[in-house]
Amino acid sequence: MSTLRTLIVDDEPLARDRLRGMLRREATIEIIGECGNGPDAIEAIRRDRPDLVFLDVQMPGCDGLKVVSSLEPKDRPAVVFVTAHESFAVDAFAVDAVDYLLKPFDLERLQAAIRRAHEHHRAAHPGAAGEAPPPAPPAVATRRPDRVTVKADGRVVFLKPEEIVWVEAADNYIVLHLAGGERLVVRETLSSLEERIGTASFARVNRSAIVNLHQVRELQPTLHGDYTVVLRDGTKVPLSRSLRGSIDRFMSGGV
Predict the structure, then answer these.
(1) What is the pLDDT of residues 116-125, one digit of tens each?
(2) What are the angstrom distances between the C-alpha of 67 and each of 85, 156, 246?
(3) Contact 65, 88 (CB under 8 A)
(4) Which of 37, 119, 204, 207 fits a 20 to 30 Å CA distance from 84?
(5) Are strands 173-178 and 183-186 parallel, antiparallel or unpaired?
(6) Angle at which helices 13-23 and 107-124 pack, to 10 degrees?
(7) Which residues is 101 bridged to in the sheet?
């Protein structure tokens, strides 16, 4: 695994000290500098071209979001936002942040962010020295994201795709049915979520429902030649004839 040249940006000296101490334990991280405000961060990124930046959101001069948006996409390093305010999460991922750390975070959570930064770096630099190129995506299915971010009840919730059992449309909202029985009501269209979670493990079974194919227990025929999808928790979802290809994907093992 290659070493990531890393810049720390935070207006609080104590916060920089703590993060620096944690990063020095990581063999794949090389700290190349620190900044205490947005304008200095922009200058340092353009001058030193770090691979990774740990970037505070609220800072004097300009905030972290403006730092990222001021950079050309081709010049942007992997960015992990570090802040005490979870309300900025949606905006952070809108500018393609690699991760979003809420203060105070522990070493395990920091290491998870570093792993995501390495994944980002490998994808941006295929065939780099010491690194194998990422595998090609499946020909007929979009690659599954590492996680899905939704906003429900004023909260920003980070989900692993495998936590989602199925999703149903409800007027202008969708309802995410999660493993363990929890439900999240989200103001988003089914089509929008379908684009974000990909089709590697999920399939639209009718105009109002998407199911996780790994959660399908059986397909039950009905009297009229249609099928009902039965999930592992016992939920039954009708399968539309026009989406019968979902059966073919499941029965052929294409999940």
Answers:
(1) 899 888 877 7
(2) 17, 22, 44
(3) yes
(4) 119
(5) antiparallel
(6) 70
(7) 82
Decide: pTM greater than 0.90: no
Q: Is 230 exposed, middle or buried (0-12, 13-18, 19+ CB in 10 A)?
A: middle
Fold of 4-124: Rossmann fold (3.40.50)
Q: What is the CATH number of domain 148-251?
A: 2.40.50.1020
69: enclosing H helix or E strand: helix 64-69
pLDDT tens sequence across 17-65: 999 999 999 999 999 999 999 999 999 999 999 999 999 988 877 888 8
Half-sphere exposure of 36 (CA within 13 A, CB side): 5
**Residue that is written with structure tokens 């979520």 in the block:** 193
C-alpha span between 83 and 254 (Å, rounded): 40
Rounded to an integer, what distance in angstroms lies between the CA atom of residue 46 and that of residue 219? 56
SS3 46: helix
